Model the fold of this input.
Amino acid sequence: MSEPLYSLRMRSSRLDSHLSGCERLAAADDLERLAAEMVGRALRHPRGRAEQISLRVDLVPAESIRNGRLLDLRTIRVDDHCQGRQAARELLLAAGVHARAADAAIARIALGAAPDGRSMRGAMLVDAVSGARLEADPARGVRASRMDLTAAAQRELRLRLARQGLDNPHVREALVLATKVLAAPEVLAELCWSDDPDYTAGYVATREHGYVRFPHLKPLGEERGGRAFFVRGDEFDRDVLTAFLEHAVLLIDEVGDIGGTSDWKELPCGK
Ligand code: AMP
Done:
């Protein structure tokens, strides 16, 4: 990649509370268009119009850019969010997350994982054995950033997602984010559902199963959402992992399999 790349990050808030965020990598020629798109998104958020919008642009050192392959994606059909959370829990357990850690993370996201009972700005770091929270700031959490797709990989991904009726920014951005998170060897699994009240889907990402989408991980209209990154406590250095998630640059140049929908009982995760 000879062309210099910039990291572009947006964060917006409303009523002193986090509203939305977005992170991309872009060549200089694309920066203005993407910045306008991000501002538009903050102004038209389903939870209301942003009152503060911060944009930050940083040139990324060319030698720090790593390439990678996107996680495979599949969808597991579930009837409602109760069944969805049950299936998500089962998948987390199969990845080596202990039941108390999976249950604690699901409950915290459901109740609003920030100290004020609302959604956090970033993700919880959760000890995969004890369920203890390990992030330094429980309101901010850790934000994964500096990851994106090459233009060719973005085109290919959109084509493949469109065949499954899934070509939307929620899925594209979350798939890229989960791929970066799972690139950290100390992360066993990620759990996410959105804080957007109109978007009930969520996912569990693991190395073995890739990005597994559940159409329902919360009821329609619910504003509380969040993310948990489950870490192996024995291999974990918070500063090293946080630096990787926030600063390492991942430019994904290969798209994984984009599979169809199956029933959750078919998921081979009974280890
Ligand atoms: P979203 O899928 O954008 O609705 O985000 C759902 C939740 O995931 C948010 O409420 C945050 O807690 C968390 N989150 C969003 N973006 C990031 C990120 N870049 N890194 C870590 N956590 C994030």
In short: The chain has two domains: 5-60, 68-266. The mean pLDDT is 94. Residues 5-60 form one domain. The radius of gyration is 17 Å.
